[in-house]
């Protein structure tokens, strides 16, 4: 397999193929293959309403995946994103339904709560030197418990806050282009992705994010306060999780306090399918977004094809392993 | 380019495999059932009933439910995917009624009748609900408990949750009957174990520790009842009359051994069967009663092997 780099003048095609070795493009190609495959297999798959359902299903997991990508790039992991999302939703419920404050306060509360939780995890990891796996495992349980305590284990409904369900279910785009009623939740996902990608690739915070993941020691030796940057990155990830909390609460028109466990693993799965390395220092927001889309397309497509649920789970697991294996192959070949 | 080809090839292969079941004629009648769960034996029994009705009436069904009963959004995604296939009717057991309303409304607007099952949907959209009368069933459990205790003593309840309709109805059905009919039986504790066997075991152990002279315990679903059995076994408690709910191998074994006095069984097979039957009737525009009572039974060592009981028990 040495034919991938030819020294003859490069045609556009060979450049595309060379680019194809990049995991993101690989993931994107898989997404297209899945979409085409499912469309051929079932005439009901490729309908506007079903595509919108897939996008809607991606929105929460996609935002969580973006948040966890940041932490994974620093060489850490965040197991608390699922229950943190729930916790932010519950706090929003307290602010909006229990305290009766206007909508904007609820939105701000969710983001601030997330940032504060993230800063806590970051402090445990950076200042107290607890391994990220353990620190965020602890946070996962703490936040799950607190959600149950604060809500009294009952769902908090947002019926008294007009417009709350519009955050996820409404469609700003649909107001302008009635034939394209893309839900706001999806719009928010793409905005979050664009902003986070900008931060990651164009700002100091982003550069330190990669640097910490590649070689934390050398960053420290060059006189950078690594602890502070690490806490900032966890806090940024937390505030993104807060947005996910808003999305799910809005979609369900309620904060469901028991929900959340298991969502962190799906987010991490989306991240690795998207080519972000769990060992840190490498990764992309676009990749995670595509990873989340692949998971949603796969789940929806298998359902539309009426594949037995047992097998849906098996196929999803196999895809994760294949995706990471393909990525390993690519890197081994390079080195 | 081995890697990419491998991946793409494998993806296509999995799709080819996956597409096999879709090779049905498009004009057949398709009724998806979206359940609250999938892996529990109870739901598998509901599925068996639905499959039975599907075979009998010549329709195709699918049966899906989220991994656990907290995953409200996953259930909604399942409902959305089911709608994509333009089904003739839908069977639905809501985890949270409110969250599902927009999609149910969408189905109703498209003229797809919804039949609720198990704990139902708080809405007027479903044309019928196939369910157990949980209040009456739990009251029967209270009557049996009182019979064992001779009308006096102290009892405790391990319930599966305090939010779902079934959790509330079974708890209150038991407590209200105790309160109104048996003034000399004191309910000392009501606790919740999420229907999880392990968690319910811990809850039941705590109750037994706190109330050494306890005479009876009622578990409101399979996991809760097995939790009580585990707790009594682990602590070697004596003189505790256990009444359970639903069935499953662990519970029926405990009844055969005499560790558990008896249990209420719903008719999960009947729930599945009646749901599909009602869906077909609704599709054909037939009138349906709002509540389809699928029935319940009390079983113990004496009648566990009767054909009537065996038909509704599951392992």
UniProtKB/TrEMBL annotation, chain A:
Superkingdom classification of source: Bacteria
One term under GO cellular component: plasma membrane
Primary location: membrane
The keyword Membrane appears for this protein: yes
Signal peptide: none
Membrane topology: Multi-pass membrane protein
Listed GO MF terms: transmembrane transporter activity
Keyword annotations: Cell membrane, Membrane, Transmembrane, Transmembrane helix
Cellular compartment(s): Cell membrane
Annotated transmembrane regions: 25-45, 51-72, 79-99, 105-126, 133-157, 177-200, 231-252, 258-278, 285-305, 311-328
Name of the protein this chain belongs to: Ribose transport system permease protein RbsC
Organism: Pelagimonas varians
UniProtKB/TrEMBL annotation, chain B:
Keywords: Signal
Keyword Transport: no
GO cellular component: cell envelope
Protein name as annotated: D-allose-binding periplasmic protein
Tree of life domain: Bacteria
Family statement drawn from the similarity comment of this UniProt entry: Belongs to the bacterial solute-binding protein 2 family.
Domain Periplasmic binding protein per the UniProt entry, residue ranges: 33-286
UniProt subcellular location: Cell envelope
Pfam name, any one: Peripla_BP_4
Signal peptide range in chain numbering: 1-25
Gene Ontology MF terms in the entry: carbohydrate binding
Lineage: Bacteria, Pseudomonadati, Pseudomonadota, Alphaproteobacteria, Rhodobacterales
């Amino acid at each position: 397999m040495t034919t991938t780099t030819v020294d003859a003048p490069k045609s556009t095609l060979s450049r595309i193929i060379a680019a194809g070795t990049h995991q993101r493009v690989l993931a994107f190609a898989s997404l297209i293959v899945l979409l085409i495959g499912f469309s051929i297999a079932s005439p009901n798959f490729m309908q506007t309403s079903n595509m919108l359902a897939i996008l809607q299903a991606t929105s929460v997991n996609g935002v969580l995946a973006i948040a966890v990508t940041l932490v994974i790039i620093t060489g850490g992991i965040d197991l608390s994103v699922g229950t943190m999302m729930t916790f932010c939703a519950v706090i929003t419920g307290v602010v909006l339904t229990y305290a009766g404050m206007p909508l904007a306060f609820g939105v701000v509360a969710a983001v601030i709560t997330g940032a504060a939780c993230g800063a806590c995890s970051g402090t445990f990891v950076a200042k107290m030197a607890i391994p990220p796996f353990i620190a965020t495992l602890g946070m996962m349980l703490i936040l799950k418990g607190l959600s149950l305590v604060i809500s009294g284990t009952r769902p908090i409904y947002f019926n008294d806050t007009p417009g709350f369900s519009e955050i996820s279910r409404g469609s700003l785009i649909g107001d302008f282009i009635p034939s394209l009623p893309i839900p706001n939740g999806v719009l928010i996902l793409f905005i979050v992705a664009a902003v986070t990608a900008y931060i990651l690739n164009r700002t100091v915070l982003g550069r330190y994010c990669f640097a910490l993941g590649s070689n934390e020691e050398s960053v420290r030796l060059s006189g950078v306060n690594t602890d502070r940057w690490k806490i900032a990155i966890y806090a940024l990830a937390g505030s993104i999780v807060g947005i996910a909390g808003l999305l799910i609460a809005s979609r369900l028109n309620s904060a469901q306090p028991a929900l959340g466990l298991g969502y962190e693993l799906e987010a991490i799965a989306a991240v690795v399918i998207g080519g972000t390395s769990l060992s840190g220092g490498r990764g992309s927001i676009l990749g995670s977004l595509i990873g989340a889309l692949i998971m949603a397309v796969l789940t929806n497509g298998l359902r539309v094809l009426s594949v037995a649920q047992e097998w849906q789970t098996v196929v999803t697991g196999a895809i994760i392993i294949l995706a990471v294996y393909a990525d390993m192959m690519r890197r081994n070949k390079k080195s | 380019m081995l890697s990419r080809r491998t991946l793409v090839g494998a993806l296509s292969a999995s799709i080819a495999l996956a597409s096999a079941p879709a090779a049905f004629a498009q004009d057949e009648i398709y009724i998806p059932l979206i359940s609250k769960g999938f892996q529990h034996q109870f739901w598998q029994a509901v599925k068996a009933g639905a499959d039975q009705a599907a075979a009998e009436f010549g329709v195709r069904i699918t049966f899906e439910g989220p991994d656990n009963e907290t995953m409200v959004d996953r259930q909604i995604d399942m409902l959305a995917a089911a709608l994509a296939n333009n089904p003739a009717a839908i069977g639905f057991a809501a985890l949270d009624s409110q969250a599902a309303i927009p999609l149910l409304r969408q189905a109703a607007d498209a003229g797809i009748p919804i039949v609720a099952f198990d704990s139902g949907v708080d809405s007027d959209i479903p044309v019928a609900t196939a369910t157990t009368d949980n209040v009456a069933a739990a009251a029967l459990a209270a009557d049996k408990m009182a019979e064992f205790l001779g009308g006096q003593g102290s009892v405790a309840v391990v319930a599966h949750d305090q939010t779902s309709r079934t959790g509330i109805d079974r708890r209150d059905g038991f407590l209200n009957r105790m309160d109104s009919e048996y003034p000399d039986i004191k309910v000392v504790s009501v606790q919740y174990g999420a229907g999880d066997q392990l968690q319910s075991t811990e809850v039941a152990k705590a109750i037994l520790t706190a109330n050494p002279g306890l005479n009876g315990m009622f578990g409101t679903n399979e996991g809760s009842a097995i939790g009580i059995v585990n707790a009594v076994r682990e602590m070697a408690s004596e003189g505790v009359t256990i009444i359970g709910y639903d069935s499953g191998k662990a519970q029926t074994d405990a009844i055969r051994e005499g560790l558990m006095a008896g249990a209420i069984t719903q008719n999960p097979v009947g729930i599945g069967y009646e749901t599909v039957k009602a869906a077909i009737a609704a599709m054909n525009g037939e009138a349906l009663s709002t509540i389809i009572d699928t029935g319940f039974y009390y079983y113990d060592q004496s009648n566990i092997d009767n054909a009537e009981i065996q038909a509704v028990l599951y392992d």
